[in-house]
Specification:
The structure holds two protein chains of two kinds. Chain A is mainly beta. Chain A contains no helices and eleven strands. By secondary structure, chain B is mainly beta. In chain B, the strands form two sheets. In chain B, strands 2, 4, 5, 9, 10 and 11 form a six-stranded mixed beta sheet that branches. In chain B, strands 1-3-8-7-6 form a five-stranded antiparallel beta sheet, with no helix packed on it. Chain B is globular, with a radius of gyration of 13 Å. The N and C termini of chain B lie far apart (about 40 Å). The chains are: A mainly beta, B mainly beta.
Chain lengths: ~110, ~110
């Protein structure tokens, strides 16, 4: 079974721009969660999607948004980028419930200049 | 709200020595507990998880952890460290009221010396 795929792996943007990150879950998984990882704040939950519906949302500003498509692929978007948005963005795929094993992708490294 | 505390942001051991990474959690409901490992420039890989049942959980790569409710702890151990164990380790908790949201500890960087 193929693992979780995240594209692109690396991105460099400038302040004020917007960015879209993509996550393809493991085949058969209908849930996707997103996390932001930074040296200062650690791993923080962004949001979770199940069957195209946002089921949970973390404490991030409205500049951070996401969606999930009918094939379970998910995208997250960050508008008006700030320097502090530089981070590793991780996507996790799981079957349905959180107690199910959550499989993480390799992440997208975003650098904001 | 649940929280996780990992004692020691850096742990250094010699190859062949015991690895002990500490994790304490706070949760108002019986939690699900996880240990993940992260190698440089990679995502998180699940080592083991506790949901219900046996409190001693065995994972991959020779790691195991014991859930101790009375101590609210879930420490990770490995009897004999290998150079390939050098990585960052994260403890995470999932409470029943948090849906599928994992709350992670700050992480512990494990160094293995030859």
């Amino acid at each position: 079974k193929a693992g979780v795929t995240q594209t692109p792996r690396y991105l460099i943007k400038t302040r004020g721009q917007q960015v879209t990150l993509s996550c393809s879950p493991i085949s058969g998984h209908r849930s996707v969660s997103w996390y932001q990882q930074t040296p200062g704040q650690g791993l923080q939950f962004l949001f979770e999607y199940f069957s195209e519906t946002q089921r949970n949302k973390g404490n991030f500003p409205g500049r951070f948004s996401g969606r999930q498509f009918s094939n379970s692929r998910s995208e997250m978007n960050v508008s008006t980028l700030e320097l502090g948005d530089s981070a590793l963005y991780l996507c996790a795929s799981f079957s349905r419930q959180g107690a199910d094993t959550q499989y993480f992708g390799p992440g997208t490294r975003l650098t904001v200049l | 709200a649940q929280s996780v505390t990992q004692l020691g942001s850096h742990v250094s051991v010699s190859e062949g020595a015991l690895v002990l990474l500490r994790c304490n959690y706070s949760s108002s409901v019986p939690p699900y507990l996880f240990w993940y490992v992260q190698y440089p420039n990679q995502g998180l890989q699940l080592l083991l998880k506790y949901t219900t049942g046996a409190t001693l959980v065995k994972g991959i790569n020779g790691f195991e952890a014991e859930f101790k409710k009375s101590e609210t702890s879930f420490h990770l151990t490995k009897p004999s460290a290998h150079m390939s164990d050098a990585a960052e380790y994260f403890c995470a908790v999932l409470g029943e009221t948090s849906g599928s949201r994992l709350t992670f500890g700050e992480g512990t960087q494990l160094t293995v010396n030859p």
